[in-house]
Design brief:
The chain has 226 residues and is an alpha/beta fold. 50% of the residues lie in helices and 15% in strands. The chain contains nine helices and eight strands. The strands form two sheets. It has a five-stranded parallel β-sheet with strand order 2-3-1-4-8, with helices on both faces. Strands 6-5-7 form a three-stranded antiparallel β-sheet. The longest helix is centred in the last third of the chain and has 22 residues. Bound molecules: BIS(adenosine)-5'-pentaphosphate. The site of BIS(adenosine)-5'-pentaphosphate has 35 residues, from helix 1, helix 2, helix 3, strand 6 and helix 9.
């Protein structure tokens, strides 16, 4: 397979970030999580951060026009020549259309969309116990993936914090936004034969293994098509 252009799709807290970190190491491809990019912009007080903060804190989606250019530039960059992993983008049909248009302009296409699926009750359990590294967004869970030292990131030693949008009422609003605006992408990509479903309810290692198997199958299918 010449290049691997992947999208991680799924509800908030389904494990996209957890798996994205592992995939980035396995595949040595650039990994762009729109939530992480936006949170860094908020911390740095940039124009993008100022535009995004209010939406993010209340659990609403940031307007499409703020996001689309930001990802388009990255996908077109030299860094993405062998492929990329997108997490949290696209999140609406217009964003998916914009990504498809950008890739067509570049003479490329998506390889697959990996849907990491869990139900709403599991989302609430996971986000309630999530702790996030203040510097680079590495993710832990008090029960399912605890750090070695309480309150400290295993990877870079930063403080672990509770995200502003991990409060119970904001979690419920994010879930409602997901079902209304993002879940329609499941049918959108399924209709294009691009969707691969991964059971996100399994433990993190088992989810990672299921993703590896899916990618191996994709490689086989691509080889057979040559
Ligand atoms: P974003 O940061 O993308 O939030 P999200 O999609 O809601 O996803 P999360 O980061 O909450 O969860 P995740 O799936 O990565 O799960 P994680 O691995 O952390 O977006 C935040 C905001 O930015 C949005 O609300 C919006 O305002 C804005 N935004 C971003 N992109 C946008 C876009 N394209 N358009 C418009 N607005 C946009 O795991 C969760 C927890 O569970 C962790 O504690 C983890 O340790 C644990 N865990 C993970 N896997 C497992 C497992 N298998 N078993 C048990 N526990 C597990």
């Amino acid at each position: 397979m010449a290049e691997l252009n992947l999208v991680l799709l799924g509800p908030p807290g389904s494990g996209k970030g957890t798996q994205g970190e592992r995939l980035q190491e396995d595949l040595e491809l650039p990994y762009w999580a729109t939530g992480d990019i936006l949170r860094a912009a908020v911390r740095e007080g940039t124009e993008l951060g100022r535009a995004a903060k209010e939406y993010m804190d209340s659990g609403d989606l940031v307007p499409d026009e703020v996001i689309v250019g930001m990802i388009g530039e990255r996908v077109a960059s030299e860094e993405a020549a062998d492929g990329f992993i997108l997490d949290g983008f696209p999140r609406t049909i217009p964003q998916a259309d914009a990504l498809a248009a950008k890739l067509t302009e570049l003479g490329r296409e998506l390889t697959a969309v990996l849907l990491i699926d869990v139900d709403d009750a599991e989302v609430e359990r996971r986000l309630g116990g999530r702790r996030t590294c203040a510097e680079q967004g590495h993710v832990f869970h008090l029960e399912f993936n605890p750090p070695q030292v309480d309150g400290v990131c295993d990877v870079d030693g930063s403080e672990l914090i509770v995200r502003d949008d991990d409060k119970p009422d904001v979690i419920r609003h994010r879930l409602a936004q997901y079902h209304a605006k993002t879940a329609p992408l499941i049918e959108y990509y399924d209709g294009q034969g691009m969707l691969r479903r991964i059971d996100g309810a399994a433990p993190p290692g088992a989810v990672a293994e299921a993703i590896r198997r899916t990618l191996a199958t994709l490689r086989l299918e691509a080889d057979e098509a040559i």
